[in-house]
Amino acid sequence: MIILYTLPQCPFCKKVLFFMEDNKIEFTNKNIEDEKTKEELISLGGKGQVPYLVDGEISMYESDAIIDYLQQKLQSTE
After folding, report:
1. Which domain holds residue 24?
2. Which pTM value belongs to this model?
3. CA 66, 54, 12 angle in degrees (round to 5)?
4. Total domain count, the chain
5. Which residues are CB-contacts of 30 (< 8 A; sequence separation ≥ 6)?
6. For all residues of the chain together, what is the average pLDDT?
7. Cβ(16)–Cβ(51) under 8 Å?
8. How far, in Å, CA of 59 to CA of 4, rounded?
9. At 21, which CATH number?
């Protein structure tokens, strides 16, 4: 299951969220306004930057990189 760490006011997070919703990608959205979720993010990625995607063994920051990864994943399932 894909997990996406976000902040509601983050434009880069919104960009990824819109892409995922438009492409009907199932995921769990974790808001780092919750302190425990932010600590979880930092323990996974080393910093509190969002958006941050976790998909099994794959994890990454940067909205464009996340969207590129998801596009490739969608194409490989067609």
Report:
1. 2-76
2. 0.94
3. 40
4. 1
5. 3, 4, 5, 6, 37, 40, 41
6. 96
7. yes
8. 10
9. 3.40.30.10
